[in-house]
């Protein structure tokens, strides 16, 4: 045994001694390119370049096909011998017309998009650097394919293919972010992520339940944060960046710093970002209905309505946030890779602006309506092992613990009683994923998953005149939510041109809740739900030549009732109160989509995807009875009782289309447009437009690149929703919509004209910025409770080292 250990050490030393490094640079500028993926389609070996454009390709020796890909560059396929003949230095040419790229969200493993029938888009760090998104929600919106709703500045709720909130899944470094209190109302959790610390963002459109389980009905948003990079030489690899940014519309002051320290076997990444936003100023030209020119202030123990000096300021909307991340990586040899990540995010308290727009008895409805600090923490351990045995080629174990805190504080105008509700969720998850190539035609992806959520919720009532507090009603019951699952997907290469994929997942979900009947006389004290769900998918990708991609996919997805569905108590709208309903079952979605992409003469790319989704046993809010009563007193108002119920069938269909044109002299043009229509069944058998099916929206871009300069002029736009187009549940929300000539709410069409630029001053410093909303439009995205920024000047300085 001793001699085997010595031999293992010698082999490891020899392997390190003869490690081969490749350097990849941009052909035009000669600058190194980070995050280039080198992939072997047959052996499933991959590597990616560090900040110096370098990667260790020792494992690729003797291979005949090595695919070299990076978003925005032409893909190359080389043999190891060809790389050796080129001196292990490769130059990539810029191209925005790629039909293939390496994606992770389809299976949690790196794959060519040629092998994934689902539509997946990537948002590159280069695009993020140019666009300067303020939050992760804004990062998603720059794709032109994700619609983002906001109820306050400190938020952002993505809508994808007519679905949103708890019907979309968030994944961070492969870990499920969704918790048992993800609600059907608008969600703000995406802002916990730091766009400066994200090195890759993907959006998978359509069902993803086979891989991700419950909630992945409309799509999956996958975020990969900075990966610690190892040194490929005896010298430490020290890289990083520092950034400062200012925006005028909300007086943004942002600072960011990240550092990578890499050795041959150990690497560390540290990242910290701080944001500070003042109240957001909206535009000068647009509907007067969006203007609220007052705010409430407490003066001498009295609530006073203050008239604003600047009526375009949206008060209260200011907030601040801090994010920290620490990652550690240990790679003892080529077979093992250990990574640990710690993430922490905390916001200040911030006002929910749409609630401050509500009026009662001719004056402000609320003196206070704030979210308390929103806190997210994650500890994540990932263990990756490469081995060629009968069970797997690669294995990945992810163990994660997450902690979520959020709270709501409200007080009616001229009333002394302040209501506070605080929720805490401890989320534990374990994922064991495998990949196994069987011959040259079949690849199996399979695994098991376990998720546990502990939910605690407390309420209190405080008399602000005496500062005496007492227990109050909680938003949720004390609950435990568990999910156990097993899945398998087979990727079968029928021919060199056609790949077929099919998969299935069985999921068992249980929910146990204990209700407190102190404040509400519920006719039950507990809820115990146990449900099994079977989902599947089948699809194919056909590439008749290098300029065509045709894909089709059929799949099902599900969402199991969570604590928010079963147990919450809250006021959904004036005059209504939602109460618990312990008799719920999962909702199921059935989806079909067809995609076609074509490149013409390496100049024009056209990409069109159509889709149809049907949702059965949809969990929707409907009128309800509590103890035989259809109305109860809630916060001093007689309110209609409602509850979440399996009460509807819904359907969504639509079209996503994009065109890219490569113009002479460094210019380019692109357009992405999205059309969707959703319908859901009402109690009376009639149908209503779906709440989360957004109007027509898109973005058109004219860009220019030359040497060290990149510029873009773009137009973002949204179509109109008349009063008759609004969902039934939106027609009473006069506080967030414009009013038509009949006094009915509607969502006007809007556009913003924006200019962005980035210039590389030196190898160390970049300066970027631009002007958003050049024409100072006053606009409000559909279903949003706060207007977008008016004319906004942005200036950012970044130092790379």
Automatic annotation (TrEMBL):
It is a multi-pass membrane protein. It is found in: Cell outer membrane. InterPro entries: Beta-barrel_TonB (IPR000531), Beta-barrel_TonB_sf (IPR036942), Plug_dom (IPR012910), Plug_dom_sf (IPR037066), TonB-dep_rcpt-like (IPR039426), TonB_rcpt_CS (IPR010917). Its main location: membrane. Gene3D superfamilies: TonB-dependent receptor, beta-barrel domain (2.40.170.20), TonB-dependent receptor, plug domain (2.170.130.10). Residues 1-19 form the signal peptide. The keyword Signal applies. It holds the Pfam family TonB_dep_Rec_b-barrel. Residues 333-774 form the TonB-dependent receptor-like beta-barrel domain. Keywords: Cell outer membrane, Membrane, Receptor, Signal, TonB box, Transmembrane, Transmembrane beta strand, Transport. Residues 114-220 form the TonB-dependent receptor plug domain. Belongs to the TonB-dependent receptor family. This is TonB-dependent receptor. It comes from Aequorivita vladivostokensis.
């Amino acid at each position: 045994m001793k001699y085997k250990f010595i031999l293992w050490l010698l082999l490891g030393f020899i392997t390190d001694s003869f490690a081969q490094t490749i350097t990849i640079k941009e052909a035009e500028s000669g600058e190194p390119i980070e995050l280039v993926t080198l992939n072997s389609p047959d052996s499933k070996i991959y590597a990616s370049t560090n900040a110096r454009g370098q990667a260790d390709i020792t494992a690729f020796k003797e291979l005949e096909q090595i695919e070299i890909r990076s978003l925005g560059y032409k893909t190359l396929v080389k043999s190891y011998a060809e790389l050796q003949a080129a001196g292990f230095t490769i130059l990539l040419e810029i191209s925005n017309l790629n039909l293939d790229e390496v994606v992770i969200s389809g299976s949690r493993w790196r794959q060519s998009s040629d092998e994934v029938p689902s539509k997946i888009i990537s948002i590159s760090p280069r695009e993020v650097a140019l666009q300067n998104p303020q939050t992760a929600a804004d990062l998603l919106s720059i794709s032109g394919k994700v619609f983002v709703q906001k109820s306050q500045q400190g938020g952002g709720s993505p809508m994808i293919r007519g679905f949103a909130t708890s019907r979309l899944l968030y994944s961070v470094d492969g870990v499920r972010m969704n918790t048992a209190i993800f609600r059907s109302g608008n969600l703000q959790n995406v802002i916990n992520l730091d766009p400066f610390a994200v090195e890759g963002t993907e959006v998978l459109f359509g069902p993803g339940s086979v891989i991700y389980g419950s909630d992945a009905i409309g799509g999956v948003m996958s975020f990969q944060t900075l990966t610690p990079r190892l040194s490929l030489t005896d010298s430490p690899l020290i890289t990083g960046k520092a950034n400062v940014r200012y925006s005028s519309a909300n007086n943004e002051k942002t600072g960011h710093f990240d550092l990578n320290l890499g050795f041959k076997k150990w690497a560390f990444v540290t990242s910290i970002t701080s944001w500070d936003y003042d109240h957001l100023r909206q535009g000068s030209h647009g509907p007067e209905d969006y203007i609220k020119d007052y705010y409430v202030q407490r003066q001498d123990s009295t609530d006073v309505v203050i008239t604003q000096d600047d009526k375009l300021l949206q008060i209260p909307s200011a907030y601040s946030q801090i994010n920290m991340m620490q990652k550690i990586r240990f790679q003892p040899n080529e077979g093992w890779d250990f990574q640990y990540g710690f993430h922490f995010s905390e916001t200040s308290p911030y006002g929910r602006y749409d609630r401050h727009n509500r009026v009662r008895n001719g004056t402000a409805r609320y003196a206070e309506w704030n979210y308390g600090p929103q806190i997210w923490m994650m500890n994540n351990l990932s263990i990756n092992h490469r081995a060629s045995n009968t069970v797997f080629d690669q294995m990945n174990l992810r163990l994660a613990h997450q902690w979520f805190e959020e709270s709501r504080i409200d007080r009616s105008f001229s009333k002394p009683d302040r209501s506070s509700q605080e929720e805490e969720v401890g989320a534990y998850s374990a994922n064991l994923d495998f990949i196994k190539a069987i011959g040259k035609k079949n690849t199996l992806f399979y695994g098991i998953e376990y998720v546990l959520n502990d939910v605690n919720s407390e309420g209190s009532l405080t008399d602000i005149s005496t500062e005496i507090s007492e227990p109050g009603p909680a938003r949720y019951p004390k609950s435990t939510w568990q999910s156990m699952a097993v899945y398998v997907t087979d990727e079968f290469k029928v021919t060199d041109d056609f790949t077929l994929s099919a998969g299935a997942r069985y999921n068992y979900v249980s929910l146990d809740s204990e209700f407190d009947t102190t404040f509400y006389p519920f006719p039950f004290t507990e809820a115990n739900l146990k449900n099994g769900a079977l989902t599947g998918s089948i699809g194919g990708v056909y590439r008749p030549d290098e300029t065509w991609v045709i894909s089709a996919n059929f799949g099902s997805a599900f969402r199991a009732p969570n604590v928010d569905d079963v147990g919450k108590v809250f006021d959904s709208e004036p005059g209504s109160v939602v109460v618990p309903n312990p008799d719920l079952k999962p909702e199921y979605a059935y989806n079909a989509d067809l995609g076609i992409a074509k490149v013409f003469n390496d100049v024009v790319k056209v990409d069109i995807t159509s889709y149809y989704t049907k949702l059965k046993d949809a969990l929707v809010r409907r009128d309800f009875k509590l103890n035989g009563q259809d109305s109860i007193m809630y916060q001093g108002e007689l309110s209609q009782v409602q509850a979440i119920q399996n009460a509807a069938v819904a359907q969504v269909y639509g079209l996503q289309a994009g065109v890219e044109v490569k113009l002479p002299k460094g210019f380019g043009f692109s357009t992405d447009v999205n059309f969707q229509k959703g319908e859901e069944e009402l109690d009376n058998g009639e149908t209503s437009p779906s709440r989360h099916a957004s109007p027509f929206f898109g973005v058109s871009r004219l860009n220019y690149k030359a040497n060290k300069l990149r510029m873009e002029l773009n137009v973002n736009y949204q179509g109109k929703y008349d009063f008759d187009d609004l969902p039934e549940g939106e027609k009473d929300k006069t506080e967030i919509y414009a009013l038509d000539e009949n006094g009915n709410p509607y969502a006007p069409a809007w556009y913003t004209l924006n200019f962005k630029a980035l210039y590389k001053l030196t190898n160390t410093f970049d300066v970027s910025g631009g002007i958003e909303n050049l024409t100072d439009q006053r606009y409000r995205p559909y279903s949003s409770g706060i207007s977008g920024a008016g004319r906004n000047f942005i200036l950012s300085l970044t130092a790379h080292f």
